[in-house]
Amino acid sequence: MVDKGTVYLVGAGPGDQGLISAKGLAYLEQAEVVLYDRLVNPLLLEKTKFDAELVYAGKLPQRHFLRQEAIHDEMVRYAQAGKSVVRLKGGDPGVFGRVGEEAAFLEEYNIPYEIVPGITAGIAAPAYAGIPVTHRLYGTSFAVAAGHRKGKDELELDWEALSKLDTIAFYMGVKNLPTIVENLIQNGRSESEPVLVIQWGTTTKQKTVKAELGTIVATVEHEKLSNPAITLVGEIASEYTGKSWFENKPLFGSSPLLLNDELSENVAKQLEAEGAEPFLYPRWHKTMLPLPQIEFDHYGEVAFQDAEDVTVFFKWLEEQEIDIRQLQAVFTAKTERAKAALHSYGIRPQAQSNAEAKLLLANDARFCEEGYAYQQTMLKTKVNSSKIVLNRLLEEENLTEIIVPSVAACELLLELYSDYPALRKLNLLALSPDVKQRLLSLHRPFSESVNTDAWPMTNWLNQWFEGQVDAVAGDFVHRSRQSSGTGEQAVSAVY
Ligand code: SAH
Hints:
31% of the residues lie in helices and 19% in strands. The protein is built from 16 helices and 21 strands. The protein has helices at 22-30, 68-80, 99-108, 121-128, 159-163, 177-186, 216-223, 264-273, 307-319, 336-344, 385-395, 409-419, 433-442, 456-464, 476-484, 488-494; strands at residues 7-11, 33-36, 53-56, 85-89, 113-116, 142-146, 167-171, 194-199, 207-212, 229-233, 257-259, 279-281, 284-288, 301-304, 330-333, 358-362, 372-376, 378-382, 402-404, 428-430, 470-472. The chain has a five-stranded parallel beta sheet, sandwiched between helices. The longest helix is centred in the N-terminal third of the chain and has 13 residues, at 68-80. S-adenosyl-L-homocysteine (SAH) binds at residues 14-15, 39, 89-92, 95-97, 120-121, 125, 171-172, 198, 200-203, 227-230. Residues 14-15, 39, 89-92, 95-97, 120-121, 125, 171-172, 198, 200-203, 227-230 line the site of S-adenosyl-L-homocysteine (SAH).
């Protein structure tokens, strides 16, 4: 349980959302306010309560968004207002994370706090490049070092001492790489010593390059690497021989936006297992509707759309103090999930019935078939965090494509297009022929011919869905500009 008025200084891990600690995640899930940094994976924000307040405390290298002092003030302000606050920081909060200053400030104001360590990039990025930072064969010491010097308040590195250590992970060191290399060589390291630079480690944008101390500056320049990156110097780097276990996953590098309907969670899990990082959009907040004026006795069949509808039904029976055995109705399940849920209540649903009066319990009228009365079970609303996350993903240019799982989801897509024109540049994947048909019929903005041979996502999804997946090109803004010459306006007019 989180305490009101307490600040939790939590390490979010280096990027991969799974690398936050169990304790950190539990705090995040319960927090009322979350102040998050730039290097925190935005998808972690979807773990928060639906009504949590999310505040960006990120700093882009050139633009100071919220200054450190302002972050201190915000933490104090929220805590004094009695909120439970998570201050979510990239990696480990105590490794170049200024947690010392933040904790001291909280102490000054008598605000209770906790520190939850995280996995630091200097260890995690090499691990995802397949390299341990210590290894019996490659020495006995490992150091972390800051590769940049911010101002005169910060200490200069002791290059002589540092150079004596076996493996060194430099943080924030890309810009300063020439100085780092020069100092290491001056202090006895060999020009032929192997070096790894790992950019955006543990994320779908991870990129690893290997060179020697003497050549790394040119290589990094040639490959256009920039921060955030870890520079790992030491013989252990010779173990990197190409793509790592992580970089080799079939869908490594894919960050699709997956429109969120009933099918999507399952698809998302499969994609994750293959190395992709899907963003389910939007996140739904569901609340059970109050007991309706309904005579369950009246129906000869009660059909359930999904597992949640089963749960709500039993809550309603409980409220009415009805014993399930009093109901004469035949129960049917519209999906495997509903069937499994009924099984867990000791009910074996039938495949169908020939009852005259039939009732469908579902959370959307679109599921209702002819011959059924419809009773809604839950109210679904979009959670605000999704937009915040989407904005961050767009800022970092993380998204690689959009997956449209169902015909119903096409509506969500159109909404997204009008709110976020930038998304129209991404290609679409339709998970069934009818979705593709629907997309093509919408306003004919899409082109059918996309060369997807080099696109692992389509191939992989195709195997999973038995060849049902089709790519439909986005890039609508671009083409409509060419044809009409009126730009954005033409686009809005179409929708
Ligand atoms: N507290 C963080 C470090 C913050 S300093 C931690 O423990 O990891 C910011 C620097 O960390 C970046 O300039 C970069 O050098 C490094 N860094 C953070 N995340 C990274 C990532 N995913 N991949 C590579 N380097 C990363």
